[in-house]
Amino acid sequence: MKRRLILLVVLSAVLVLALANFRLAAAPKVLKLAEVHPKGYPTELADEEFARLVEEKTDGALKIQVFFGGQLGSENDVVEQAKLGVIEFVRVSTSPVVSVYPPIGVFSMPYIFRSQEHMWKVLNGSIGQHFLDSLTVVGLVGIAYFDAGARNFYANKPLKGLADLKGLKIRVQPNPIMVNVVKLLGATPVPIAYGEVYSALQTGVIDGAENNIPSWISAGHYEVAKYLIKDGHLRLPELLMVSKKFWDGLPEEHKVAIKEAAKEATEFQIKAWNEAEEKYLAQARAKGCVIREANVEEFQAAVAPLFEMPEYSSYKVWLNKIKAVK
Question: Does residue 142 or residue 3 have the better pLDDT?
Fold first, then answer.
């Protein structure tokens, strides 16, 4: 009787331990994805779709929480955190990645993509894959690109052509390439924080800025700078990246699932972006904004000296390859 009781106690303990281990194994691993854009922005919507797909494709083993609106820091901050493994996933522009992987700065050169279609042919081909793969040398794994549209100039004064930019004070990102571009276009570059642009336009500290159409609207800049000229000087791709420290510890089936989810999320994001751009353009026109098509060739001619500057000579091989993509 005593032996049976002891056996029953042992079996019960084994069952409890096995059940605890099963629950531990079944509990999803919760991961962080950093996003600077607000909730509902096209890239944030794609982040949410990516998170949903990863959870679905890993049968709930991986669960991603999207921290939108810069909750985890600026794009530069989260890139560093991802390198250290503090954050598992980040969605950032290629621009801040230049500080850790300079060759990707080629995407910051003006007018290198002829259209959205041309950009995606480049990104979906060997050139785009090269840059995704090369990020591993700095502790990051590139898994997808997102679309950030074309960046255009807008101002609180009419913009009909290149001549109207002459002498204007234009806000730019603290990026040497854009500083040089604005100078070559005859305007004065003013590198100030993005959050200060609205008040700077309102008070006349600056006359204009440059950005994509959804950002022009979502940040309210169209309220104080209603003249936009569609010159499309930049189509700066966005990156969805994983911390290499986290990635290296994943089983192969989870890596495959994440890459599949990223590919599907990219298709979702492009559609969401195009729909948002159309919606925002209609909203801007309804508010009395004046939107003109630029003579892009005159803008390209004005910035041509940039491509001969010695500091950008390392980009020439890639620029030629991008131009050759039909």
Answer: 142
What is the rounded average pLDDT of the residues 317-326? Answer: 97
**How many whole angstroms separate alpha carbon 241 and alpha carbon 263?**
13
Shared-domain flag, residues 77 and 118: yes
pLDDT band at 10 (very low <50, low <70, confident <90, very high): very low
Residues 93 and 136 in one domain: yes
What does the alpha-carbon distance between residue 220 and residue 206 come to, in Å, rounded to a whole number? 15
Is the same domain home to 124 and 155?
no
Please tell me whether residues 210 and 177 are part of one structural domain.
yes
Based on the domain organization, do 161 and 61 belong to the same domain?
Answer: no
pTM across the whole model = 0.87
Q: Say how far residue 258 (Cα) sits from the centre of its chain.
A: 18
> How many independent structural domains does the chain possess?
2
pLDDT in tens, 53-94: 999 999 999 999 999 999 999 998 999 999 999 999 999 999
112 shares a domain with 96: yes
Reported as a pLDDT band with limits 50, 70 and 90, residue 3 is low
Whether residues 119 and 39 share a domain: the answer is yes
| Parent domain of 141 | 23-148+236-276
Could you tell me the CATH number of the domain that includes residue 210? 3.40.190.170
319 in the same domain as 172: yes
Q: What is the mean pLDDT of residues 271-285?
A: 96
Per-residue pLDDT at 134 exceeds 60: yes
